[in-house]
Design a protein that fits this description.
The chain has a single domain, classed as Lipocalin, CATH 2.40.128. It is built from two helices and twelve strands, in the order αβββαβββββββββ. Strands 1, 3, 7, 8, 9, 10 and 11 form a seven-stranded mixed sheet that branches. Strands 6-5-4-2-12 form a five-stranded antiparallel sheet. A hairpin with a 5-residue loop joins strand 9 and strand 10. This is Lipoprotein.
């Protein structure tokens, strides 16, 4: 075997390794909408979320609050008109999905630790881990807080990463949703 026959495979390997230094990255990071009320200043610990909110909110695309909170298998999602939050209080948040007559369709209790954590004034729910492709793994989470007007803010984050053919790959998406508070 002469030196010329080794150059081409070695060059391909080197090109592949060097290409890994400039990873393919896709980030769709929606900024906080300028026409919404200001976010509350970050505080240590959990934000106060207690209140009643409309199920239909605003965002880049329409997603009902109930769909953000409950599994896709939750049967009454189509009937939900309002969502009640109680807490966090004593390390727990109680979420109730209500119909137009304020009948409780579904109630869920989230406990700090297994169901959520608090960080920089946000309540964060990790929805889980997933495999995006055979070589990419990711996380899906929602961050909850209120704005100065008392509306519920939700920032949905999806992030995935891995290595494909010597190349590190990352994909991240962040979207904002606002659910108006209902006076009681």
């Amino acid at each position: 075997m002469n030196g010329h026959s080794l150059r081409w495979p070695a060059g391909m390997l080197l090109a592949g390794l060097l290409a890994g230094c400039v990873p393919p990255i896709y980030v769709d990071k929606q900024d906080y909408p300028a026409d919404w009320s200001a976010q509350l200043t970050a505080v240590a610990g959990c934000p106060e979320l207690t209140g009643r909110y409309q199920n239909q909110g605003e965002g880049r695309f329409a997603v009902g609050l109930a769909k953000q909170l409950m599994p896709d298998t939750a049967d009454p999602l189509k009937q939900v008109q309002r969502v009640d939050f109680d807490g966090p209080d004593g390390g727990a948040v109680v979420v109730r999905l209500l119909d137009a007559q304020d009948v409780i369709l579904l109630e869920q209790r989230w406990n700090e630790g297994p169901d959520f954590r608090c960080e920089d004034g946000w309540l964060i729910r990790q929805r889980g881990y997933f495999w995006a492709t055979p070589v990419l793994t990711g996380t899906d989470s929602e961050r909850f807080a209120r704005n100065a007007h008392g509306d519920l803010l939700v920032q949905r984050r999806t992030e995935a990463g891995g290595v494909f053919l010597f190349l590190p790959v990352y994909r991240g998406e962040r979207f904002w949703f606002r659910y108006p508070r209902i006076a009681q």
